Amino acid sequence: MIYDVVVVGAGFSAIAVTCNLIEQLPASAKVAVIGDDPGFGRGTAYRTELYLHRLNVPAGRMSLLPHRPDDFVEWLKSRGRTMQATDFASRSDYGLYVRDTLAQLLRKRDDRCQVDFIKAKAAGCVERYNSTLAFHLGNGDEIAGRNVVLCLGVGNASLPVDPVDVPPFLRSRIVENPWRLSWLRLVAPSESVCILGSGLTMIDQVLALRAHGHRGRIDVLSRRGLAPLGHAKTPPAPLLIDVQTLPGTISGILKSLRTKSGETADWRAVMDGLRPMTQVLWQRLSSEERARFLRHALPWWNIHRHRVAPDVFDRFEKLVSEGTVRFHAGFLKSLAAEEGTLLAGYRVRGTREIAGIRADWLVNCTGMERAGISHSPLLKEMSRFQLIAPDPLGLGIQVDATSEVLGPSRILPTRLFAVGALTAGQFWEITAVPDIRVQAKAVVEEIASNRSNRDA
To answer: Where's the FAD-dependent urate hydroxylase HpyO/Asp monooxygenase CreE-like FAD/NAD(P)-binding domain (predicted)?
Structure first.
């Protein structure tokens, strides 16, 4: 069957695109959404049921549709959640809101496009001579689209080393995907835990452990030993920043931002002022400067940019000050067993010294893998047929300023777009809801406009 639009994916990007398609396309249009995730649209982050797992963006900036900015806050109020736009809602509530928003749009049976949800995995792709891209599905079917939107996210990053030296009886105590929260029930209150990675996922898992009654020691190992900072309880007004006046080098930009931070009462004002202009700033940088940023500045950018809710930060800081959570900076070199426990061997940062952390459990919180072609069989095949090309820095695939995919060998007029993490090479800041929702709306507007011109 041939559709006007085929959306490939089942995460937040896919649901944002689908909602915009329902709002913007005429009743005569046909849309297919391909995805095999049973929690369509909620993804890993928004399926958690723990109340301590909060959004790290205030509720007032989390509406699914950018032209309805108060939508999420109004939804919270309608469910009896007394929250203001500046408060940080739970991730589980946000997942329910996303689900309800899609359901509400689908309930409008009249005067909306046809939407077919196909529970399958897209296993291959080929161009057809009826001006479409056809997808081979894991269930044996094939569907084709005149427009295609790739909304493929990324999975949990693999362990930095192979636990080949860990005996089978201890392998079950290595948690490779921490978002499968069933492991928490198996941890005894007094057992020790070693967490690899010190980002937002680490904080989520530390608080989840405490909520499940864990009272043992938690060691955190990461390359630099840095942890995310907190949002201010009373946010400062964002500082107006003209990115066109900033230097063109990473070192020059950092020097300028440090100067501005020293001239304000709260450095968050600088980061929040820079936030709306981050994509513009990224696109001004040369490939060399982008690579320099990824090599040297990214960890410091992450802890200042991706902050946690104030009360969550206070809970975590208390555990650190008490010595319950201890940080180690170094590079993991080995995983082995010692006296019935796990032993994580690491090289201490800045030295040649090898140290070790003994723990009853080891949890992989190194974050999400960087978006790219290698993690997806579908993208590998599309690359083999030269329908897509990798970003030179490994940040997804190449797209233009409208999010249209730049393939080296495109022979048909089928329009192929990407939304979300796959477009980080072009936009950098494109993994958070405020960015993805704007991108999704713009892509659908482009598709709707092209369709109207074709039908005119």
So the answer is: 6-154
Strand partners, 237: none
Q: Which pLDDT score, from 0 to 100, does residue 177 have?
A: 86
Query: In this structure, what token pair is assigned to residue 51?
Result: 């109340």
Q: Which neighbouring-strand residues pair with 347? A: 331, 354
pLDDT at 33 over 60: yes
Number of domains in the chain: 3
Identify the pLDDT of residue 157.
80
CA distances from 181 to 2, 81, 234 (A): 40, 25, 33
105, 31: one domain: yes
Q: Which residues, 6 or more positions from 292, have their beta carbon under 8 angstroms from its beta carbon? A: 249, 250
Tokens in use for 242?
A: 């003209």
Give, in order, the Cα–Cα distances in Å from 372 to each of 161, 435, 438.
20, 19, 22
Which of 340, 44, 367, 337 is closest to 195 using CA atoms? Answer: 367
Q: CA geometry: angle at 365 spanning 363 and 369, to 5°?
A: 130
Number of other residues whose CB lies within 10 A of the CB of residue 348: 13
- Residue 150: closest CA among 39, 24, 34, 43: 34
pTM, to two decimals: 0.90
